[in-house]
Amino acid sequence: MHCRTLTERNTNLNGRTIVRNIMFGSPEGPWNHSFRLEHKLGPRLKVDPDTPRAERALSKKRDTFVLSAYKDTRVCRTLREFAQVCTPTEKPRAVIVGEGKDAEVQLMELFPGTPLFVEKPVATGPIGDVGQVYEVSRPIEDTNTVCSVGYMLRYLKGVQVMKKIIEDNNLTVVATIARYTCAYEAIAKPDWWDKSKSFGPIIEQGTHFCDLSRYFGGEVDLTSVQAHSLEWDEENGRLGKMAVDESEIAPENRIPRVTSAAWKYESGAVGTFTHVLALQGTDYSCELEVYADGYQFKLVNPYVSPVLYIRQPGQETESKMAFPEDDPFFSEISCFTIRLRTRLRALG
Known about the structure:
Helix content: 25-40%
Number of helices: 10
CATH superfamily of the largest domain: Dihydrodipicolinate Reductase, domain 2
CATH topology of the largest domain: Dihydrodipicolinate Reductase, domain 2
Domain Oxidoreductase putative C-terminal: 154-295
Radius of gyration: 21 Å
Largest sheet: 8 strands, mixed
CATH architecture of the largest domain: 2-Layer Sandwich
CATH class of the largest domain: Alpha Beta
Strand content: 15-25%
Structural class: alpha/beta
Distance between the termini: 13 Å
Protein name: Oxidoreductase putative C-terminal domain-containing protein
Oligomer: single chain
């Protein structure tokens, strides 16, 4: 299979362009889509990137086993520029969107029907203007485009075990409890600490756990959502090992140290999520609990070395399942390529 990818740049609300780390990795996490694509597709991968960072990353890539994927790569500043210079044989068969301002809308206009893999598809806009959000998804839906999203935690083996037990026993989820505690000392990107640029830790990190909660609890009654936060200027909101100088960020744009939310699902179940900036060092601490009649599921450390604890009827203690080699990033890319291959075969 011949798969071409485009990486996008993200333009924030102030018009400043920032590079995202999801495509080529960053020091503080396991995220790196290019690494998984290279191992999944090998020489079948051909890459057309759209980011200045590509020039630095490409020189490293060309020294590895995936030289053939990157040796003829050209760098385009915009999607329209790429559309103008690409030949019919270079027309993308799939597009990987790291982040981008209306990238999906542009792609559906320039390359209608091209399968998309969209990393963290969070739409931002004026509060209450839901129509603006749906304008992004509508052309994808209207053209019946294959579209996978980068909520990789759904692809964890432990998550699928939970899902299977719930479905096999016809269980009804009654509560989800999610906690994401990050090691802030390793986060040295100034934009991450600025709400006007990266929109805060719930968008940057917590959205993955919001999605995972919905994966088990179902749709949320949005009118029921309530949240509290511990702000940077409160006495217990001070952090002693920040890697950035927060004084260079406008006070109104500094991010909260804790955000805690609760809601009702449309099914009647209850959900909670708490995001905390408190740990130092590099290791995060993340957990998700899911409850049903007679059952407790607790997924621990999903990003690095997932462990699933299960208590079920007839047991007073928890059973334990470990998945030390699980790589949900690779699993989600694998599922996307399978869907893509199926689509291409259907089209002949």
